[in-house]
Structures are given as C-alpha cells and as structure tokens.
Design goal:
Distance between the termini: 83 Å
Helix content: 40-55%
Strand content: 5-15%
Number of helices: 13
Order of helices and strands: HHEHEHEHEHHEHHHHHH
Radius of gyration: 22 Å
Structural class: alpha/beta
Number of strands: 5
Shape: globular
Strand order of the largest sheet: 2-3-1-4-5
Largest sheet: 5 strands, parallel
C-alpha cells in the first residue's frame, strides 16, 4: 500500500491515516465553536467578561496579568501582549473569563466597548496606575541602557488624560501597582466584588502557580525582573540625585503630574516639587 500524503505518523499527527486539520479547517472549527458558545449550547461556557488590562506603562500590567491568570478559575489568557480588539473578535470564547494585557489598549476602550454592545459578553477594563514620579523615572531591563527612561513624558500625559476621562465609569477598575504588591488581598476583594469570580488560590500566593520566567517573552521578564512573591516596592527611588534633572524636566513640561500625585493619593501637597 502506498503512504498517506505527507507520510503522516502517529507521533506527530495522531493515528496513522488520519490527516491533521488544515489551517482552513481550524479556522472553521474555531468559528463554529464561537458560534456555539455565543448561542449558549449545552457543553459550552458562555463568556462572562473580557478583562482588558491597560493603563500606564511600568505600572504592573504584566504582574496583574500573571496574578489573574494564576489565581482565577476558567481564564483564557495569553503569553505576552495581545490587542484587546483582536481577542474580542477572534480568541477562544469557551471560557468564563477572557484576559488580555496591553497598556496601549487604553486608547482602544471605546472600540472594545462598542464590540461588546453588539456581541455576547462584556468588557471590564483593569486600568493600572502607579506613582507618576516612579513611572517617569523608570527604566526597563528588557531594553538597553541607551534607551534611557522608558516612558516618554508625552506618552504619560496622553495616558493620564485618557485614564482621568474614564476612571469613574462603571466598567473600569483602577488598580495601583503599590496596592497590588503591598495589599494584594485588597485588590482581590475589590475585583471579586466587581466580577464575582472564584479563585483557586489567593492573589498573595500567585507565584506558586504563575508561569515560569522561561515561558514568558523576554520583554515581560525584563518588566517583572523575575517571578517572585508579591512585596511592596522600594519607595522614593524617583528622588535619587541621578533623577533630579529628569524630575525638573517632568515638572516643567507636565505640571499636571503634581495634581495626579495628589489625585491618586501619592502626595497631599506639592512640597516635593518645590524641593527639586
């Protein structure tokens, strides 16, 4: 007898004589599954919410993604950054929760909202914030030192405007990096009250089940500095003498940083800026 096309073998294509699905077959099967899920057919899991992690860069978005992925039951997540709008349209919906992380999706909030007004499920935006002074003096281990400060002042200003415009909306939950690392049980309680999900382990134990660093893209490993237990970050690193010129430039070009620090509770006055 002649060989099957492609010399299929049980070790790499299932039983001998059963051709593997082609890309076209896989796409059709995926569309059929999505349609079955959206119609609520038996044996499927309707999507409750698409959790869209977005916000300031260097504010814990990768960490929050790993925490939710490790601790929450029935999550469809991804390795690295995936556009929320793409995932809403094409990702596997046969889970209660769909999780995407991409700080720049703060610019796509209206588009994602619009998608879910016409399709099953809902979007919940987990917006990450951090002391603006730390964001604007942060570097990234995934990039060479020649890049300098990771977040451009103009980018911070744009993200700040967008967050302030939506942070009080009912589908938005603001998560600060400082709270996530220092009081994870408080973040867990707030998100649990909002979403009504069930956990397999508490947030503070996420590192026991989180993806290993070897499974993550190099850019995420650089952002995290490794997977380890949650602990509060050192405070006041922005005040180092090496950052003084940077902070003077920030205050000069983006004076709204002062009100942002007060607004999110990082300061009660502007005395810190007067000392630069």
């Amino acid at each position: 007898m002649g060989e099957w096309p492609g010399d299929l073998r049980a070790t790499d294509a299932g039983p001998v004589g059963v051709a593997p699905p082609t890309p076209v077959h896989r796409r059709v099967a995926k569309r059929l599954l999505r349609a079955a899920v959206d119609r609520g057919l038996p044996g499927t899991t309707p999507l409750d919410a698409h959790l869209v992690i977005c916000g300031f860069p260097r504010s814990g978005s990768t960490l929050l993604q790993l925490v939710v992925d490790a601790c929450v039951h029935d999550v469809c997540s991804f390795v690295g950054e995936v556009e929320a709008r793409w995932a809403a349209q094409f990702a596997n919906r046969n889970h209660r929760w769909l999780l995407t992380k991409r700080p720049a999706d703060i610019t796509a909030v209206d588009d994602v909202r619009c998608w879910y007004t016409r399709n099953p499920g809902r979007a919940v935006f987990l917006v990450t914030v951090r002391d603006p002074r730390e964001v604007l003096t942060s570097t990234h281990k995934g990039y060479p030192p020649s890049r300098g400060y990771y977040c451009e002042i103009e980018r911070w200003q744009d993200v700040h405007r967008r967050i302030r415009a939506i942070e009080a909306d009912p589908d938005v939950v603001v998560v600060s990096y400082e709270e996530l690392t220092g009081q994870p049980s408080d973040v867990e309680a707030r998100l649990g009250a909002e979403l009504g999900w069930s956990l397999s382990i508490p947030f503070e134990r996420f590192h026991e089940r989180a993806r290993a660093s070897t499974e993550l893209p190099a850019i995420d490993v650089g952002a995290l500095g490794g997977v380890r237990p949650l602990q509060p970050p050192p405070t006041g690193r922005w005040a180092a003498a090496s950052h003084r010129e940077r902070m003077r430039e920030v205050v000069r070009r983006a004076p709204e940083v002062l009100s942002a620090c007060r607004h999110w509770g990082y300061t009660t006055d502007d005395h810190w800026a007067e000392q630069l």
